[in-house]
Design goal:
Layout: E1 3-4, H1 18-26, E2 61-62, E3 71-73, E4 80-82, H2 83-86, H3 90-96, H4 108-116, H5 123-146, H6 151-155, E5 170-172, E6 175-177, H7 181-198, E7 225-228, H8 235-245, E8 250-254, H9 270-278, H10 283-286, E9 290-294, H11 316-327, E10 330-338, E11 344-350, E12 355-360, H12 365-376, H13 395-407, H14 411-417, H15 421-425, E13 429-432, H16 438-446, H17 452-461, E14 466-469, H18 471-484, H19 489-498, H20 500-505, E15 511-516, H21 518-522, E16 528-531
Parallel strand pairs: 1-6, 7-12, 7-13, 8-9, 9-12, 14-15
Antiparallel strand pairs: 2-3, 3-4, 5-6, 10-11, 15-16
Helix pairs in contact: 1-7, 4-5, 12-13, 12-14, 16-18, 18-19
Length: 541
Amino acid sequence: MPQVVGSVYLLGRGALRLGEAAAVASGGCRQLAAARCCSGEPPKGPRSQGPNCKSCGKPLRSATNLPSSRYLMCDSCSKLYMGGAVEESLQQRLNLMKPEQRRSPPYPTQVAEYLDKFVVGQMQAKKTLAVGVYQHYRRLEHNVESGAVSAASMAYKTPETNIPRGVLYQETQGGMSSLSLGEMQRAGAQQGAQQQQQQPAAPSRPMFRALPDKEPPLRLEKSNIMLVGPSGVGKTFLTQTLARVLDVPIALCDCTSMTQAGYVGEDVESVIQKLVQAAGGNVERAQQGIVFLDEVDKIAASNDGHSHAYRDVSGEGVQHALLKLVEGTMVNVKSGRKGMGAQQETVQVDTTDILFVASGAFTALDKIVGGRLDKKSLGFGSTSGTRRISAEDKQSEMAKKRDALLAQADQGDLIQFGIVPELVGRFPVLVPFHSFDKESLVRVLTEPANSLLAQLKLQFAIDNVELSFSSEALDEIATAALERKTGARALRSIVESALLEPKFIVPGSDIEAVHVTREAIRGSESVIYTRRSEPKQAALS
Protein backbone atom coordinates (compact mmCIF):
# COMPACT_ATOMS: atom_id res chain seq x y z
CA MET A 1 0.00 0.00 0.00
CA PRO A 2 1.56 3.35 -0.98
CA GLN A 3 2.45 5.75 1.76
CA VAL A 4 0.58 9.00 1.95
CA VAL A 5 2.27 11.89 3.70
CA GLY A 6 0.91 15.32 4.61
CA SER A 7 -2.36 15.35 2.71
CA VAL A 8 -5.33 17.67 3.07
CA TYR A 9 -8.56 16.23 1.76
CA LEU A 10 -11.74 17.62 0.30
CA LEU A 11 -14.54 15.43 1.58
CA GLY A 12 -18.07 16.26 0.52
CA ARG A 13 -19.93 19.52 0.79
CA GLY A 14 -18.66 20.41 4.26
CA ALA A 15 -14.92 20.01 3.61
CA LEU A 16 -12.49 22.86 3.04
CA ARG A 17 -11.95 24.16 -0.45
CA LEU A 18 -8.65 25.63 -1.65
CA GLY A 19 -9.40 29.23 -0.70
CA GLU A 20 -10.65 28.19 2.73
CA ALA A 21 -7.59 26.02 3.28
CA ALA A 22 -5.37 29.00 2.51
CA ALA A 23 -7.34 31.15 4.94
CA VAL A 24 -7.03 28.49 7.62
CA ALA A 25 -3.29 28.20 7.12
CA SER A 26 -2.85 31.96 7.25
CA GLY A 27 -4.39 31.81 10.73
CA GLY A 28 -1.46 29.80 12.01
CA CYS A 29 -2.35 26.11 11.52
CA ARG A 30 0.94 24.28 10.82
CA GLN A 31 -0.03 20.83 12.06
CA LEU A 32 -1.14 19.69 8.61
CA ALA A 33 2.40 19.61 7.17
CA ALA A 34 3.77 17.17 9.74
CA ALA A 35 0.71 14.93 9.96
CA ARG A 36 0.72 11.17 9.69
CA CYS A 37 -1.01 9.19 7.00
CA CYS A 38 -4.37 7.48 7.17
CA SER A 39 -4.56 3.72 6.82
CA GLY A 40 -7.77 3.96 4.87
CA GLU A 41 -9.33 1.08 6.81
CA PRO A 42 -13.00 1.32 7.72
CA PRO A 43 -13.82 2.35 11.27
CA LYS A 44 -13.90 -0.41 13.84
CA GLY A 45 -15.75 -0.72 17.13
CA PRO A 46 -18.64 1.31 18.45
CA ARG A 47 -18.82 4.94 17.50
CA SER A 48 -18.38 7.60 20.13
CA GLN A 49 -20.98 10.18 20.96
CA GLY A 50 -19.03 13.00 19.31
CA PRO A 51 -18.14 13.43 15.62
CA ASN A 52 -15.76 10.85 14.18
CA CYS A 53 -13.41 10.80 11.23
CA LYS A 54 -14.97 9.31 8.11
CA SER A 55 -11.81 7.37 7.23
CA CYS A 56 -10.41 5.95 10.46
CA GLY A 57 -13.44 6.33 12.71
CA LYS A 58 -11.48 7.96 15.51
CA PRO A 59 -12.94 10.93 17.40
CA LEU A 60 -12.27 14.40 16.08
CA ARG A 61 -10.98 17.20 18.25
CA SER A 62 -11.53 20.92 17.98
CA ALA A 63 -8.78 22.74 16.12
CA THR A 64 -8.26 25.22 18.94
CA ASN A 65 -5.48 27.06 17.17
CA LEU A 66 -7.86 28.09 14.38
CA PRO A 67 -9.94 31.28 14.54
CA SER A 68 -13.23 29.37 14.45
CA SER A 69 -14.29 26.45 16.60
CA ARG A 70 -16.30 25.01 13.70
CA TYR A 71 -13.18 23.29 12.37
CA LEU A 72 -12.41 19.80 13.63
CA MET A 73 -9.25 17.76 13.12
CA CYS A 74 -8.38 14.07 13.17
CA ASP A 75 -5.03 13.53 14.92
CA SER A 76 -4.61 10.11 13.29
CA CYS A 77 -4.91 11.01 9.62
CA SER A 78 -4.69 14.84 9.79
CA LYS A 79 -7.93 15.48 7.97
CA LEU A 80 -9.50 18.84 8.60
CA TYR A 81 -13.29 19.02 8.71
CA MET A 82 -15.86 21.72 9.04
CA GLY A 83 -18.59 21.14 11.61
CA GLY A 84 -21.27 20.58 8.99
CA ALA A 85 -19.29 17.79 7.32
CA VAL A 86 -19.45 15.42 10.24
CA GLU A 87 -22.83 16.29 11.70
CA GLU A 88 -25.24 13.44 11.32
CA SER A 89 -28.37 14.23 9.42
CA LEU A 90 -31.80 13.95 10.94
CA GLN A 91 -32.45 10.87 8.83
CA GLN A 92 -29.41 9.10 10.35
CA ARG A 93 -30.41 10.09 13.87
CA LEU A 94 -33.91 8.74 13.33
CA ASN A 95 -32.52 5.46 12.02
CA LEU A 96 -30.20 5.07 15.03
CA MET A 97 -32.96 5.82 17.53
CA LYS A 98 -34.99 2.97 18.91
CA PRO A 99 -38.76 3.13 18.39
CA GLU A 100 -39.38 3.66 22.11
CA GLN A 101 -36.91 6.56 22.12
CA ARG A 102 -38.84 8.58 19.54
CA ARG A 103 -41.08 10.97 21.35
CA SER A 104 -44.56 11.25 19.92
CA PRO A 105 -45.69 14.82 19.24
CA PRO A 106 -48.44 16.18 21.49
CA TYR A 107 -51.88 15.33 20.20
CA PRO A 108 -54.20 18.19 19.20
CA THR A 109 -56.44 17.54 22.21
CA GLN A 110 -53.43 17.75 24.55
CA VAL A 111 -52.28 21.04 23.03
CA ALA A 112 -55.80 22.49 23.34
CA GLU A 113 -56.02 21.39 26.99
CA TYR A 114 -52.72 23.10 27.72
CA LEU A 115 -53.90 26.32 26.07
CA ASP A 116 -57.14 26.22 28.08
CA LYS A 117 -55.12 26.75 31.26
CA PHE A 118 -53.92 30.16 30.08
CA VAL A 119 -56.31 31.42 27.38
CA VAL A 120 -60.05 31.94 27.83
CA GLY A 121 -62.37 31.05 24.96
CA GLN A 122 -61.23 31.14 21.31
CA MET A 123 -61.89 27.40 20.89
CA GLN A 124 -61.82 27.58 17.09
CA ALA A 125 -58.40 29.20 17.16
CA LYS A 126 -57.10 26.70 19.71
CA LYS A 127 -58.27 23.76 17.61
CA THR A 128 -56.74 25.19 14.44
CA LEU A 129 -53.37 25.91 16.05
CA ALA A 130 -53.32 22.54 17.82
CA VAL A 131 -54.00 20.70 14.56
CA GLY A 132 -51.45 22.84 12.71
CA VAL A 133 -48.72 22.11 15.26
CA TYR A 134 -49.44 18.36 15.31
CA GLN A 135 -49.48 18.13 11.52
CA HIS A 136 -46.25 20.13 11.42
CA TYR A 137 -44.54 17.48 13.55
CA ARG A 138 -45.96 14.60 11.53
CA ARG A 139 -45.18 16.25 8.19
CA LEU A 140 -41.53 16.75 9.13
CA GLU A 141 -41.21 13.18 10.37
CA HIS A 142 -42.77 11.77 7.19
CA ASN A 143 -40.67 13.87 4.82
CA VAL A 144 -37.46 12.92 6.61
CA GLU A 145 -38.20 9.20 6.82
CA SER A 146 -39.39 8.98 3.21
CA GLY A 147 -36.44 11.03 1.91
CA ALA A 148 -38.65 13.59 0.19
CA VAL A 149 -36.46 16.56 -0.76
CA SER A 150 -37.81 20.07 -1.24
CA ALA A 151 -37.57 21.81 -4.59
CA ALA A 152 -35.48 24.61 -3.08
CA SER A 153 -32.89 22.17 -1.76
CA MET A 154 -32.72 20.36 -5.11
CA ALA A 155 -32.17 23.64 -6.95
CA TYR A 156 -29.23 24.60 -4.75
CA LYS A 157 -27.73 21.14 -4.43
CA THR A 158 -24.15 21.10 -5.75
CA PRO A 159 -23.18 17.94 -7.65
CA GLU A 160 -20.11 16.18 -6.36
CA THR A 161 -18.53 16.17 -9.81
CA ASN A 162 -18.04 19.93 -9.55
CA ILE A 163 -15.76 19.59 -6.51
CA PRO A 164 -12.10 19.96 -7.60
CA ARG A 165 -10.79 16.93 -5.75
CA GLY A 166 -7.43 16.95 -7.56
CA VAL A 167 -6.39 20.39 -6.40
CA LEU A 168 -5.04 19.63 -2.96
CA TYR A 169 -2.81 16.63 -3.67
CA GLN A 170 -0.43 15.38 -6.35
CA GLU A 171 0.01 11.74 -7.30
CA THR A 172 3.50 10.32 -7.90
CA GLN A 173 4.84 6.87 -8.72
CA GLY A 174 5.60 6.23 -5.07
CA GLY A 175 2.30 7.56 -3.81
CA MET A 176 1.37 11.12 -2.92
CA SER A 177 3.74 13.88 -1.93
CA SER A 178 2.83 16.67 0.43
CA LEU A 179 2.39 20.17 -0.99
CA SER A 180 2.67 23.54 0.65
CA LEU A 181 -0.16 26.01 0.30
CA GLY A 182 1.69 27.98 -2.37
CA GLU A 183 2.26 24.81 -4.36
CA MET A 184 -1.39 23.88 -3.88
CA GLN A 185 -2.52 27.19 -5.31
CA ARG A 186 -0.09 27.03 -8.24
CA ALA A 187 -1.09 23.44 -8.94
CA GLY A 188 -4.74 24.37 -8.98
CA ALA A 189 -4.11 27.30 -11.33
CA GLN A 190 -1.96 25.17 -13.68
CA GLN A 191 -4.50 22.38 -13.70
CA GLY A 192 -7.30 24.79 -14.59
CA ALA A 193 -5.22 26.36 -17.39
CA GLN A 194 -4.31 22.95 -18.83
CA GLN A 195 -7.92 21.86 -18.83
CA GLN A 196 -8.91 24.99 -20.72
CA GLN A 197 -6.15 24.42 -23.33
CA GLN A 198 -6.73 20.71 -23.82
CA GLN A 199 -10.50 20.79 -23.99
CA PRO A 200 -11.68 22.11 -27.35
CA ALA A 201 -14.76 24.23 -27.53
CA ALA A 202 -17.53 21.66 -27.75
CA PRO A 203 -20.68 22.58 -29.64
CA SER A 204 -23.57 23.51 -27.39
CA ARG A 205 -25.85 20.52 -27.06
CA PRO A 206 -28.83 20.17 -24.77
CA MET A 207 -28.26 17.74 -21.93
CA PHE A 208 -31.21 15.67 -20.78
CA ARG A 209 -31.63 13.41 -17.82
CA ALA A 210 -33.49 10.15 -18.09
CA LEU A 211 -36.96 10.05 -16.63
CA PRO A 212 -37.12 8.32 -13.25
CA ASP A 213 -38.21 4.70 -13.29
CA LYS A 214 -40.31 5.06 -10.15
CA GLU A 215 -42.34 7.82 -8.64
CA PRO A 216 -40.56 9.99 -6.04
CA PRO A 217 -41.81 9.73 -2.46
CA LEU A 218 -44.90 11.76 -1.70
CA ARG A 219 -43.96 15.00 0.04
CA LEU A 220 -46.38 16.62 2.46
CA GLU A 221 -46.69 20.37 2.01
CA LYS A 222 -47.36 22.85 4.80
CA SER A 223 -50.53 24.86 5.41
CA ASN A 224 -49.69 28.29 6.78
CA ILE A 225 -52.19 29.91 9.16
CA MET A 226 -53.63 33.44 9.28
CA LEU A 227 -55.18 34.64 12.57
CA VAL A 228 -57.74 37.44 12.21
CA GLY A 229 -59.47 39.27 15.06
CA PRO A 230 -59.85 42.56 16.93
CA SER A 231 -57.19 43.94 19.23
CA GLY A 232 -56.86 42.50 22.72
CA VAL A 233 -58.52 39.10 22.16
CA GLY A 234 -55.45 36.91 22.68
CA LYS A 235 -53.85 36.43 19.25
CA THR A 236 -50.31 37.28 20.33
CA PHE A 237 -50.72 35.80 23.80
CA LEU A 238 -51.99 32.53 22.34
CA THR A 239 -48.96 32.18 20.09
CA GLN A 240 -46.59 33.07 22.94
CA THR A 241 -48.22 30.45 25.16
CA LEU A 242 -48.01 27.87 22.40
CA ALA A 243 -44.31 28.57 21.95
CA ARG A 244 -43.61 27.39 25.50
CA VAL A 245 -44.98 23.90 24.88
CA LEU A 246 -43.39 23.17 21.50
CA ASP A 247 -40.13 21.31 20.96
CA VAL A 248 -39.21 23.21 17.80
CA PRO A 249 -37.52 26.61 17.43
CA ILE A 250 -39.94 29.52 17.57
CA ALA A 251 -39.38 33.05 16.24
CA LEU A 252 -41.84 35.80 17.19
CA CYS A 253 -41.49 38.69 14.73
CA ASP A 254 -43.21 42.07 14.51
CA CYS A 255 -44.04 43.17 10.97
CA THR A 256 -44.37 46.85 11.89
CA SER A 257 -40.58 47.34 11.84
CA MET A 258 -40.00 45.55 8.52
CA THR A 259 -39.08 47.46 5.38
CA GLN A 260 -38.05 46.58 1.87
CA ALA A 261 -34.41 45.62 1.38
CA GLY A 262 -32.15 48.65 1.10
CA TYR A 263 -34.16 50.92 3.41
CA VAL A 264 -33.83 51.73 7.09
CA GLY A 265 -35.48 49.01 9.17
CA GLU A 266 -35.44 45.25 9.46
CA ASP A 267 -35.21 43.17 6.31
CA VAL A 268 -37.50 40.23 5.77
CA GLU A 269 -34.53 37.86 6.06
CA SER A 270 -34.15 38.92 9.70
CA VAL A 271 -37.13 36.66 10.43
CA ILE A 272 -35.11 33.59 9.47
CA GLN A 273 -32.06 34.95 11.27
CA LYS A 274 -34.06 35.10 14.52
CA LEU A 275 -35.18 31.52 13.92
CA VAL A 276 -31.58 30.35 13.46
CA GLN A 277 -30.59 32.11 16.67
CA ALA A 278 -33.53 30.47 18.49
CA ALA A 279 -32.19 27.11 17.26
CA GLY A 280 -28.76 27.84 18.72
CA GLY A 281 -27.17 28.18 15.29
CA ASN A 282 -28.34 24.71 14.22
CA VAL A 283 -29.54 25.23 10.64
CA GLU A 284 -31.13 21.80 10.37
CA ARG A 285 -33.23 22.42 13.46
CA ALA A 286 -34.14 25.94 12.31
CA GLN A 287 -35.48 24.52 9.04
CA GLN A 288 -38.12 22.67 11.08
CA GLY A 289 -39.22 25.66 13.17
CA ILE A 290 -42.25 27.93 13.31
CA VAL A 291 -42.34 31.67 12.57
CA PHE A 292 -45.07 33.91 14.02
CA LEU A 293 -45.60 37.11 12.02
CA ASP A 294 -47.43 39.49 14.33
CA GLU A 295 -49.22 42.65 13.14
CA VAL A 296 -49.18 41.47 9.53
CA ASP A 297 -52.07 43.82 8.74
CA LYS A 298 -49.68 46.77 9.24
CA ILE A 299 -47.88 45.89 5.97
CA ALA A 300 -51.06 46.12 3.90
CA ALA A 301 -50.80 48.16 0.73
CA SER A 302 -52.04 51.73 0.99
CA ASN A 303 -55.43 52.33 -0.61
CA ASP A 304 -54.76 56.06 -0.87
CA GLY A 305 -55.23 57.50 -4.32
CA HIS A 306 -51.83 59.21 -4.10
CA SER A 307 -49.96 56.03 -3.24
CA HIS A 308 -48.38 55.97 -6.71
CA ALA A 309 -46.37 59.08 -5.83
CA TYR A 310 -44.05 57.24 -3.44
CA ARG A 311 -42.61 53.80 -2.92
CA ASP A 312 -44.48 51.76 -0.33
CA VAL A 313 -41.33 50.29 1.24
CA SER A 314 -42.99 49.26 4.51
CA GLY A 315 -46.20 47.90 2.99
CA GLU A 316 -46.49 46.21 -0.37
CA GLY A 317 -42.71 46.07 -0.71
CA VAL A 318 -42.50 43.88 2.40
CA GLN A 319 -45.29 41.67 1.12
CA HIS A 320 -43.44 40.93 -2.10
CA ALA A 321 -40.30 40.14 -0.11
CA LEU A 322 -42.28 37.66 1.99
CA LEU A 323 -43.63 35.73 -0.99
CA LYS A 324 -40.76 33.33 -1.68
CA LEU A 325 -39.81 33.24 1.99
CA VAL A 326 -43.23 31.88 2.97
CA GLU A 327 -43.50 29.49 0.04
CA GLY A 328 -40.00 28.05 0.34
CA THR A 329 -36.58 29.20 -0.83
CA MET A 330 -32.92 29.21 0.16
CA VAL A 331 -32.01 32.24 2.29
CA ASN A 332 -28.52 33.36 3.28
CA VAL A 333 -28.52 34.63 6.86
CA LYS A 334 -25.96 35.21 9.57
CA SER A 335 -25.86 32.44 12.14
CA GLY A 336 -24.61 34.63 14.98
CA ARG A 337 -21.41 32.60 15.37
CA LYS A 338 -17.98 34.00 14.64
CA GLY A 339 -16.28 32.68 11.53
CA MET A 340 -13.01 33.43 9.78
CA GLY A 341 -11.69 36.96 10.24
CA ALA A 342 -13.87 37.63 13.30
CA GLN A 343 -16.91 37.99 11.03
CA GLN A 344 -20.22 36.25 11.50
CA GLU A 345 -20.52 33.22 9.29
CA THR A 346 -23.31 33.04 6.73
CA VAL A 347 -25.45 29.93 6.43
CA GLN A 348 -28.08 28.80 3.94
CA VAL A 349 -31.55 28.03 5.30
CA ASP A 350 -34.29 26.23 3.38
CA THR A 351 -37.64 27.74 4.37
CA THR A 352 -39.76 25.07 2.67
CA ASP A 353 -40.61 23.21 5.89
CA ILE A 354 -40.88 26.27 8.14
CA LEU A 355 -44.47 26.83 9.29
CA PHE A 356 -45.60 30.47 9.13
CA VAL A 357 -48.41 31.74 11.37
CA ALA A 358 -49.50 35.34 10.72
CA SER A 359 -51.85 37.40 12.87
CA GLY A 360 -53.39 40.84 12.65
CA ALA A 361 -56.33 42.94 13.84
CA PHE A 362 -57.39 43.90 10.27
CA THR A 363 -59.40 46.89 11.44
CA ALA A 364 -62.53 47.53 9.31
CA LEU A 365 -62.31 44.09 7.68
CA ASP A 366 -65.83 43.42 8.97
CA LYS A 367 -67.08 46.37 6.89
CA ILE A 368 -65.53 44.86 3.78
CA VAL A 369 -67.18 41.51 4.49
CA GLY A 370 -70.52 43.20 5.22
CA GLY A 371 -70.41 45.14 1.98
CA ARG A 372 -69.69 41.97 0.02
CA LEU A 373 -72.53 40.04 1.66
CA ASP A 374 -75.02 42.90 1.18
CA LYS A 375 -74.25 43.03 -2.54
CA LYS A 376 -75.08 39.35 -2.84
CA SER A 377 -78.41 39.76 -1.00
CA LEU A 378 -79.79 42.61 -3.15
CA GLY A 379 -83.15 41.80 -4.81
CA PHE A 380 -86.90 41.61 -4.17
CA GLY A 381 -87.75 40.84 -0.56
CA SER A 382 -84.23 41.49 0.75
CA THR A 383 -83.25 44.07 3.34
CA SER A 384 -80.04 45.76 2.27
CA GLY A 385 -77.63 46.77 4.98
CA THR A 386 -78.85 44.36 7.66
CA ARG A 387 -75.41 42.75 7.88
CA ARG A 388 -73.61 46.02 8.38
CA ILE A 389 -72.87 47.55 11.76
CA SER A 390 -74.82 50.76 12.36
CA ALA A 391 -74.37 53.47 14.95
CA GLU A 392 -77.70 52.54 16.56
CA ASP A 393 -76.49 49.09 17.55
CA LYS A 394 -75.57 48.57 21.16
CA GLN A 395 -72.02 47.61 21.97
CA SER A 396 -72.85 43.97 22.64
CA GLU A 397 -74.79 43.73 19.39
CA MET A 398 -71.94 45.39 17.52
CA ALA A 399 -69.49 42.81 18.86
CA LYS A 400 -71.77 39.92 17.87
CA LYS A 401 -72.24 41.32 14.37
CA ARG A 402 -68.51 41.91 13.99
CA ASP A 403 -67.72 38.35 15.04
CA ALA A 404 -70.31 36.96 12.64
CA LEU A 405 -68.84 38.96 9.76
CA LEU A 406 -65.24 37.97 10.52
CA ALA A 407 -66.32 34.32 10.61
CA GLN A 408 -67.40 34.69 6.96
CA ALA A 409 -64.24 36.46 5.79
CA ASP A 410 -62.34 34.87 2.92
CA GLN A 411 -59.19 35.50 0.91
CA GLY A 412 -60.95 37.98 -1.36
CA ASP A 413 -61.70 40.24 1.59
CA LEU A 414 -58.04 40.22 2.63
CA ILE A 415 -57.06 41.19 -0.92
CA GLN A 416 -59.48 44.12 -0.82
CA PHE A 417 -58.01 45.09 2.57
CA GLY A 418 -54.59 45.51 0.98
CA ILE A 419 -52.79 42.15 1.08
CA VAL A 420 -51.44 41.11 -2.31
CA PRO A 421 -53.15 38.02 -3.80
CA GLU A 422 -49.90 36.06 -4.00
CA LEU A 423 -49.33 36.36 -0.25
CA VAL A 424 -52.96 35.64 0.62
CA GLY A 425 -52.82 32.42 -1.37
CA ARG A 426 -49.87 31.23 0.70
CA PHE A 427 -51.99 31.32 3.89
CA PRO A 428 -54.83 28.89 3.10
CA VAL A 429 -56.06 28.53 6.71
CA LEU A 430 -57.98 31.59 7.96
CA VAL A 431 -58.84 31.60 11.68
CA PRO A 432 -61.22 34.28 13.08
CA PHE A 433 -61.04 35.41 16.74
CA HIS A 434 -64.21 36.54 18.50
CA SER A 435 -64.54 39.62 20.70
CA PHE A 436 -64.76 39.41 24.49
CA ASP A 437 -68.07 40.18 26.19
CA LYS A 438 -68.44 41.06 29.87
CA GLU A 439 -68.63 37.44 31.01
CA SER A 440 -65.51 36.55 29.03
CA LEU A 441 -63.56 39.44 30.52
CA VAL A 442 -64.51 38.34 34.05
CA ARG A 443 -63.20 34.86 33.19
CA VAL A 444 -59.99 36.40 31.85
CA LEU A 445 -59.56 38.12 35.22
CA THR A 446 -60.05 35.01 37.34
CA GLU A 447 -59.68 31.66 35.51
CA PRO A 448 -56.24 31.43 33.83
CA ALA A 449 -53.31 30.12 35.85
CA ASN A 450 -51.44 33.37 35.24
CA SER A 451 -54.47 35.65 35.47
CA LEU A 452 -54.21 39.29 36.42
CA LEU A 453 -55.86 38.74 39.80
CA ALA A 454 -53.49 35.85 40.60
CA GLN A 455 -50.52 38.10 39.89
CA LEU A 456 -51.89 40.95 42.01
CA LYS A 457 -52.69 38.65 44.92
CA LEU A 458 -49.14 37.33 44.81
CA GLN A 459 -47.76 40.87 44.91
CA PHE A 460 -49.70 41.63 48.09
CA ALA A 461 -48.94 38.20 49.58
CA ILE A 462 -45.24 39.04 49.46
CA ASP A 463 -46.03 41.68 52.13
CA ASN A 464 -48.26 39.18 54.03
CA VAL A 465 -51.43 40.96 52.91
CA GLU A 466 -54.53 39.25 51.53
CA LEU A 467 -56.19 40.84 48.49
CA SER A 468 -59.81 40.15 47.53
CA PHE A 469 -62.39 41.48 45.05
CA SER A 470 -66.16 41.45 45.27
CA SER A 471 -68.17 40.01 42.40
CA GLU A 472 -69.65 43.47 41.76
CA ALA A 473 -66.12 44.87 41.47
CA LEU A 474 -65.23 42.27 38.84
CA ASP A 475 -68.35 43.14 36.83
CA GLU A 476 -67.48 46.83 37.04
CA ILE A 477 -63.94 46.17 35.81
CA ALA A 478 -65.26 44.19 32.83
CA THR A 479 -67.83 46.87 31.99
CA ALA A 480 -65.20 49.62 32.07
CA ALA A 481 -62.91 47.53 29.86
CA LEU A 482 -65.65 47.10 27.25
CA GLU A 483 -66.13 50.86 27.06
CA ARG A 484 -62.44 51.38 26.25
CA LYS A 485 -62.69 49.03 23.23
CA THR A 486 -59.16 47.65 23.64
CA GLY A 487 -60.10 44.14 24.70
CA ALA A 488 -58.39 42.45 27.63
CA ARG A 489 -55.53 44.97 27.58
CA ALA A 490 -57.73 47.50 29.39
CA LEU A 491 -58.17 45.23 32.42
CA ARG A 492 -54.72 45.84 33.85
CA SER A 493 -54.99 49.60 33.42
CA ILE A 494 -58.28 49.74 35.34
CA VAL A 495 -57.16 47.49 38.20
CA GLU A 496 -53.77 49.16 38.58
CA SER A 497 -55.45 52.55 38.84
CA ALA A 498 -57.74 51.32 41.63
CA LEU A 499 -54.89 49.66 43.56
CA LEU A 500 -52.41 52.51 43.40
CA GLU A 501 -53.28 53.85 46.86
CA PRO A 502 -53.21 50.41 48.59
CA LYS A 503 -49.85 49.62 46.98
CA PHE A 504 -48.53 52.87 48.42
CA ILE A 505 -49.90 52.42 51.94
CA VAL A 506 -49.68 48.67 52.62
CA PRO A 507 -45.88 48.09 52.68
CA GLY A 508 -44.60 48.59 56.23
CA SER A 509 -48.07 49.12 57.75
CA ASP A 510 -50.29 47.03 60.04
CA ILE A 511 -52.74 46.20 57.23
CA GLU A 512 -53.36 42.48 56.79
CA ALA A 513 -56.17 42.47 54.20
CA VAL A 514 -57.41 44.65 51.33
CA HIS A 515 -60.92 44.28 49.90
CA VAL A 516 -61.87 45.97 46.60
CA THR A 517 -65.52 46.95 45.99
CA ARG A 518 -67.46 48.35 43.04
CA GLU A 519 -67.26 51.86 44.47
CA ALA A 520 -63.47 51.57 44.72
CA ILE A 521 -63.28 50.70 41.02
CA ARG A 522 -65.49 53.68 40.16
CA GLY A 523 -63.33 55.92 42.34
CA SER A 524 -66.13 57.13 44.59
CA GLU A 525 -64.85 55.31 47.69
CA SER A 526 -61.62 53.84 48.97
CA VAL A 527 -60.84 50.15 49.33
CA ILE A 528 -61.59 48.43 52.64
CA TYR A 529 -58.56 47.83 54.88
CA THR A 530 -58.34 45.28 57.69
CA ARG A 531 -55.65 46.00 60.27
CA ARG A 532 -53.85 43.70 62.69
CA SER A 533 -54.59 43.86 66.40
CA GLU A 534 -50.91 44.44 67.19
CA PRO A 535 -49.32 46.63 64.54
CA LYS A 536 -45.69 45.97 63.66
CA GLN A 537 -43.42 48.70 62.44
CA ALA A 538 -40.88 47.93 59.79
CA ALA A 539 -37.30 48.23 60.95
CA LEU A 540 -35.52 51.16 59.41
CA SER A 541 -32.13 50.31 58.04
